[in-house]
Amino acid sequence: MQHHVEIYDFYAIRMTQARLLKNLSILPNRLECLLSRPPQLGILQEHVYANSSSAVRTSATLMQNQHSFLVTNKHLFVNAKRMAGHNKWSNIKHIKASKDQAKSILHNKFVRLIRMAVKDGGNQTDPKINGKLAHVLIQAKENSVSKSCIESALKGAVVSKDNLAPYTFEIKGPGKCFLVVETLTDNYTKTKQLVKSCLKKTSSVYAEGISKSAFTHKGVIIVEDNGSLSLDKAVDVAIQAGAEDVTQITTDDGENAFQFFSDPGQFWNVRTNLQELNYVIQSSSVQYVPTVKQPLTDDDISIAEKLYDLLERLPEVVNIYDNIE
């Protein structure tokens, strides 16, 4: 466990270390402490290791001048940092890197989807003729993929020699959660090995069959709440549009919306019907919807986040679904 401590200068850091070592004297004699490295400018992270025999189960919380430390019989971690103002660039850089990475992943996904749609349509790049390509382009626009990226993908699809094909990998992740990973690749064996390397690093394994037992394959269409659509009325709209079900949700932006579900084979018909009924579609796709949710501990969530990060870095991966609660 890590605690953040506000440190203003070297003197405060040294005093904090001194107080910490002094207070550790109240613990059993067999408890030994060692500060791993000296303080540094900027963000300082100190690791203090406290070792004791298995018979000694010691836990104490030390509070000194608004600095909080957690001591256990195994480890003590102190994470010290300067005031937020001094660390602003590090925070901005982290946020920017995350956004850039997400944008890169999204663009890579649609480049592959566009290439496969063009190939499947006989190298036809006109969406009026190539229906599958038209569907992919609609979803690309819903996900705010840039026009330049789409145009570049269309040009590259014609000359590309890739024979991309879809493959799905089913995974049992940390804390007994399940994931379904959709890929587009021209080398199944290589992609399977790349995914396996991600699993080895995150206590995860392949688990064939979980997509049928823990998920259902559905078309999911999220419609903007225009203020006049109640859940009762949305049910009538779902019947009229040919959807199987509808729920009221709150989006990541905190806005109310309605989520319509359909059979995968009827997805585009339902989507078109909703549009013709003058409803604004925020997003739409055929995806794996979990039927059973799996709660995770904080530690397992951290491992799951690492697994996601590793998988998303693979260019072959286009979608990841999970049943994490």
UniProtKB/TrEMBL annotation:
Domain of life: Eukaryota
InterPro entries per UniProt: Integrase-like_N, TACO1_YebC-like_2nd/3rd_dom, TACO1_YebC_N, Transcrip_reg_TACO1-like, Transcrip_reg_TACO1-like_dom3, YebC-like
Domain TACO1/YebC-like second and third, first and last residues per copy: 167-324
Gene3D superfamilies reported in the protein's UniProt record: 1.10.10.200, 3.30.70.980
Pfam families for the chain: TACO1_YebC_N (PF20772), Transcrip_reg (PF01709)
Cellular localisation: Mitochondrion
Ranges where the TACO1/YebC-like N-terminal domain occurs: 87-157
GO CC, one annotated term: mitochondrion
Family label: Belongs to the TACO1 family.
Name of this protein: Translational activator of cytochrome c oxidase 1
Organism this protein belongs to: Strigamia maritima
